[in-house]
Design goal:
mainly alpha, globular
Length: 127
């Protein structure tokens, strides 16, 4: 993975990651996404993160690491499906980037967000 790509590196924040996962589902629902696999993956992502979305704190460190790893796997799968289905757009890509930032995977998120449709010239992207 390219280490030179600008990215935000923030501490693990599962509560906010859960809220972002919900936004991803809302964006997909609003657009009437025809690919059921994308919706199923997004719903699994929400299910993993939802227990923390209403909190202001991460769970204990060992559980937080497991949840982060599971969410990252689903996030990568989701991006593959978005890209394969040509469903990406700027806002969806931004949400993907934000999700990975909250999972302490900012560099990976900056790359995956482009595959999910984020405009590389977006003012929201790190410089």
């Amino acid at each position: 993975m390219n280490s030179d790509i600008p990215h935000f590196q923030i501490p693990l924040n599962l509560p906010h990651a859960g809220r972002i996962a919900g936004r991803i589902v809302s964006l997909l629902d609003r657009e009437g996404v025809p690919a059921a696999g994308v919706e199923k993956t997004a719903d699994k992502l929400v299910a993993i993160l939802q227990p923390y979305a209403d909190s202001d704190e991460n769970p204990r460190p060992d559980l937080a690491a497991r949840v982060r790893d599971q969410a990252a796997v689903l996030g990568r799968q989701l991006v593959d499906q978005i890209e394969a289905g040509r469903l990406g757009h700027d806002r969806l890509g931004q949400c993907v980037r934000n999700l990975f930032e909250c999972l302490e995977l900012g560099r990976e998120g900056a790359i995956l967000s482009l595959r999910a449709g984020e405009d590389p010239a977006s003012f929201q992207r790190p410089v």
